[in-house]
Amino acid sequence: MTAALEVRGLEKRYGQVEALAGVDLDVGEGELVGLLGPNGAGKSTLVKIACGLVRPTRGDAKICGLSAGSHEARRRLGYLAELFRFPGWYSADELLDLHQRLASSRGGAGERTELLELVGLAEARDRRVEQMSKGMQQRLGIAQALVGSPPLLLLDEPTSALDPVGRRTVRELLEELRRRGTSVLLNSHLLSEIELVCDRVAIMLHGKLVAEGSPTELAQAHGVEIETDEGKRLFEKATREDTPRLVAELIAAGRKVYGVRVLTSTLEETYLEAVGEESS
Amino acid sequence: MSLVLTIAGYGFREALRRKVFVVVLLLTAAFLALYWLANHYIFRDIANVGAPAGIEPRPFAGAFIFGLAMFATLFLGTVLAVFLTLGVVRGDAERGLLQPLVVRPIGRATLLGARWLGAVAVCAPYVFAVYGAAMVITGLTGHWWPGHIVVPGIELAGGVAVIAALSLFGSVFLTSTANGIAVFMIFGAGLVAGLLGEIGHALNSHTLSHAARVAAWAIPFEALYQDGLHEITANTTGLTGLLLQLGPFGGANAGGHWLRLWAVAYLLIIGALAALAFARRDL
Known about the structure:
The complex is a heterodimer. Helices cover 34% and strands 29% of the residues of chain A. Chain A is α/β, with parallel strands linked by helices. Chain A folds into 2 domains: 5-217, P-loop containing nucleotide triphosphate hydrolases (Rossmann fold, 3-Layer(aba) Sandwich), CATH 3.40.50.300; 221-264. In chain A, a hairpin with a 2-residue loop joins strand 1 (5-14) and strand 2 (17-27). The longest helix of chain A is centred in the middle third of the chain and has 17 residues, at 164-180. Chain A is globular, with a radius of gyration of 22 Å. The mean pLDDT of chain A is 88. Chain B is an all-alpha fold. Chain B has one domain (2-279). Chain B has 12 helices and no strands. Chain B has helices spanning 2-17, 19-45, 57-85, 90-95, 99-102, 108-142, 150-173, 176-203, 206-218, 221-232, 238-246, 256-279. Chain B is globular, with a radius of gyration of 20 Å. The model of chain B has no long low-confidence stretch (mean pLDDT 87). The interface between A and B is medium-sized, with 28 and 23 residues.
């Protein structure tokens, strides 16, 4: 099966600065992948190469098997930039209409209505962009990226200007997209958000992938804590699978067991461990 | 083709919404009002002027003041063209306006060409309107009409289209402010070269005339303007015609068909260079 996004040995230099230093990453069909990393890790550069805004120095990026940046590849993706603006005089409906024409979408008014409802802007259909809050503009940006139902969505910090309710709307939207089989590469600083919705997480640092896996895989085991009549005992190297054996051994040794807790690190702890002291 | 029209329409709509468009319209209204006043007083008083033998005062005054109006039209058209195009690539990219458009399945060259068309769709009718209004004011006030009416107007609009193309080309490399300054400096350099050509013609200096000709072909908006000036006095002969050619709005340097062909080729060359540079630019 062809991956929605396939990146191999991707390198990018801006003069003396190495933004990407050989990245390999796949986003499978219908998969939701979160991209994490401190500022300057190369996340936005990776996304920009994927949608043809930036040319790689070396390596290869493919969208649904097509060379990134080509006309055909761009037909298959929707993109929301980290820093974007829409002309203030367009209404939400007019803006989506413009992008429908640019994307050769035949969805018409029906698609526009559906997208505006999906991002919670149905009531703001005729409101001009300049009269919208930053959060509303960001949700309109997501609707714009979804014009033409692209199989791959590249979202660069799509919730940075949203309040908790707006974030929840986007989270529900992402879950809906997963149900529809749309692949998503989500670049975000919000670890909780990534942990909640993503199938897989990739952590970048200094232009390289330093950790990759499902949120569960990345939440590593940190031992098992057992509370007995002698107090709490920590078995540092034990995993969840070792728990029954440890409890049986303690009972056999005459101890009374009152509680067992498997210790795991959160995604945040894994992230901080991966990126060290780098600030975001 | 529909994509080109969509982007051109986007640029056209942006142009009409910009404050600069309102400013240019106000400046134009002020210019035309002052121009009418100037025509009124010049042609009212011209009957009392004792013109030297061989000089026809009415054609001289009409051609001179209308030449001035053509310069003002070129300038106002240039202001409009530059402000509509100076930030199309780098400026819009820095503001985040360009990226949502560029990731759509449209070529960057198409986008650039369409933005040029959008700017020309605003500037060319504007130039025709101001040129026509000035001509009607002079015609009705002074009873003088240009030798040729259509070609000078087209050449003025062509000159503005060349400036729009240069501004778009500059926008690929420069920030909006730097590009605006650069294009206005080129505009000024072109005008100075044209004036030097006039002086060279008056003094019969081949070196000056040659330098002006080279500059005119390098930035042909000035040559188109000069050719337009030449066209409006095409029917003015004798000492009156000679004196007009010695003045700043005389149009001593005719460009003819080769100049018009070169202007078209120049637009294509600048367009191709801009498209090539834009294709290689990271956004």
